[in-house]
User: What shape does this take?
Amino acid sequence: MTLSTVTRELHPLPPFDFGQSLAFLGMFPPTKADQTLTGQQLTRAFMIGPQVVAAQITSLGTTDAPRLRCTLLSDSPLTESVQQAAFERAALYLSLDDDLRPFYAIAETDPCFTPILRRMYGLHQVRFPTPFENACWAILTQRTPMPAAQILKQALIEHFGGSLVIDGHCYQAFPTAAAVANADPAQLEALLHNQRKAGYISAASRAFSQFDESFMRTGDYDTVEQSLLAIKGIGPWSASFVMLRGFGRMERIPLGEGRLAEVFARVYGPAEHLESVAAHYGPNQGYWAHYLRASG
Assistant: This one.
């Protein structure tokens, strides 16, 4: 089958090190099976409405003058609207428009953190491919080991998502909220073998299919957080997780995360208080926490 292809250059805000993004993706279990990392190229698929579109991304520039080549591939025509949505999704996924300079200016005054900054210079947060996938992952991992959650996620992909074969490799894309929102609740329960999780996934799909994602990324933090907390099955930890890793909201640190506390104690010592150090970073404290956690 001949695939439709379109290529465009993307221009991240510097500094941006694509190698840092690839290194993070290589060690991030929730999405590791959904992509290939070949040399300095990332390939993964997204659902753009009902259409599966894969993005192949490689670096053309340097950390301080970054340029990415992004090629879209699909077995359906790549209309202008699909192209626009797919390139935007790829840019959001890699947080290409995040300005790290205010965060770095503060980090340079923090001697405990400076070695981490040097080691991870140019890392833009890699988000979940969509905020809805992030919310579903938060629900699926509640009181559930990660391998079991992966099986449930795979069931959602196979039933409601899509796939595209490129060079003999099948790339699968997590479904849109709208696709799951139209499912019969009994169908979801049969698929997940768990009435509680099926109800939560159903509630999340209905909510996310109605959200204005642009507002969720940029609107008042507390208002957005309350919208998430209103979803059955989304508690304070899940809401903070989705705010950070789904919508890219870096104003606050994730709540109650054991690994972050462990790494913090190693870097700063047990006498320091995580909240007070985070406050020093102000609206960039989410990035500070992300670097800390990724460094551990």
User: Anything to note?
Assistant: Strands lie at 4-10, 35-38, 41-48, 51-59, 68-74, 162-166, 169-173.
